[in-house]
Amino acid sequence: MNQMIDTMVTIQHVISHLEAIAPRQYQESYDNAGLIVGDPSQPVTGIITCLDSTEDVIDEALQRGCNLIVAHHPIIFKGLKTLTGKNYVERTIIKAIQKGVAIYAIHTNLDNVLHRGVNQRIGHMLGLQAVRVLAPKKANVQWLVMLTRDLENARKKLTSLGVHVLGGDSGTVHLIFPKGEKAKVQALLSELGVPFDQVVSMADPQQTVADLGSGLIGELPEAMEEEAFLDYVKLRMKAGCIRHTALRQKKIRRVALCGGAGGFLLPIAKANGADIFVTADYKYHEFFDADDKIIIADIGHFESEQYTIDMLQEILSEKFSSFATYCTSVRTNPVFYR
Questions:
Q1: Please, what is the end-to-end C-alpha distance for the chain in angstroms?
Q2: pLDDT attached to residue 144
Q3: Residue 201, pLDDT score
C-alpha cells in the first residue's frame, strides 16, 4: 500500500459514523455485525464496500490501496474452532489478517433502520412513495430531548452508549436505548448540559418506533398491471429471473418488500393490504402461503440487496474525503442464471 496514511481517520472513526446511522444494538440476536477482523485504532488508507467479503475482495482492496472492507454480510456467523483454510470463510479471514485488511459488517442493524437503510434504498429503486416500516420494532426506553448545542458531538457520545438518536440536525430529538443504560444516559445528558427536567419521558415497552423495524411498505405513483410491474422490478433490480406466485388479475399499487430473506413478514404484508411482496429466499412450500391474497415475488438474495453496496459507498464518501471509498467490482453473487 503506497498511498499516504491519513492519521486523523481510524477504523474506529468509520465504525462510529456507520453505527450512528445503524446502531449495532439493533441487529438481530443471531447476527454478528461489527468489526470482524482488524485493529480499530488503525488509520484508514481506503475502503471497499461490498455485500460479501471474499478472497477476491481482499485482493481488490490490496490492489486499490485499501485496508478496510465494509460488507453487509458478516463473513463469520458462528464461532470458528480452527483456522486452517479448509473453506472460503477461513481462507478469507486468514488472508485478511496476513495482509492487514480489516473487515467490518453492518448487517441486520442496517436492515432494521429506515433512514439510509437497506429497505429504503430498495423502495427508492422501485419508485415507491409514502414509505414506512412494515413491521416496526418496540422501543425499550424513549426520551424526547432538546439538543441545540454541539449536536454532532452529542450524537457521537450518545451512540457510543448504544443510544439510537432520531431527529433533525438541531432541536428536538428522540433517544431510544435499553432500560439498563438509563442511568448512564442521564449522566451523559447532564455532562452535555441538558437539564433532566427538559427530558420528556416517553418510556413504554410496548411502544413502536416509526423508523425502526423490518421490511418496508409503500405506494406506486400509479397502479400497474401485474406483468408490467414484474417486468419493471426485474429491470430495476437487475434480477436474472423472478419466481412468483399466481397472478391475481388485479393491478399493483401497494408494495411490501424486504431485502434478503423476508418470508417471516408475509402475514404482516397481507394485513397491511399489500398487493405484492418483493423479497428473496423463498422455499417451494412457502409459496403456498400467498393463498391467492397476495403475490409473492422472489427476486434473489443478492439482487434484493445489491444497491446496499452503492449506499454504503455514498454514506462513507460523504463523510470522509481524505481517502477513497470504492464499490467492489467483484461479483460476489454465488448464484448464476442460464
A1: 39
A2: 74
A3: 64
The domain at 118-134+213-298 falls in which architecture?
3-Layer(aba) Sandwich (3.40)
Residue from 172, 169, 196, 193 nearest 182 by CA: 196
Is 11-107+306-327 CATH 3.40.1390.30?
A: yes
Could you tell me the sign of the dihedral formed by the alpha carbons of 23, 135, 172, 181, in that order? negative
pTM for the model: 0.81
In DSSP notation, 208-262 reads: EEEEEEEEEEEEEEEEE-HHHHHHHHHHHTT-S--EE----SS-EEEEEEEEEE-
Q: Which three cell numbers stand for residue 138?
A: 418496540
CA–CA dist 140, 179 (Å, integer) = 6
CATH number, span 140-206: 3.30.70.980
Q: What is the pLDDT of residue 126?
A: 98
The Cα–Cα gap between 125 and 238 comes to 11
Q: Which pLDDT belongs to residue 5?
A: 46
Rounded to 5 degrees, φ, ψ at 86 are -80, -10
Is residue 197 helix, strand or coil?
Answer: helix
Positions of the chain with pLDDT lower than 70, given as ranges: 1-7, 138-140, 142, 147-151, 166-171, 178-180, 195-210
State how far the Cα of 14 lies from the Cα of 319, in Å rounded to an integer.
9
Residue that is written with C-alpha cell 402461503 in the block: 289
Distance (Å, rounded) from C-alpha 209 to C-alpha 195? 25
CA-to-CA separations, 63 to 53, 58, 123, 139, 144, in angstroms, rounded: 15, 9, 34, 44, 47
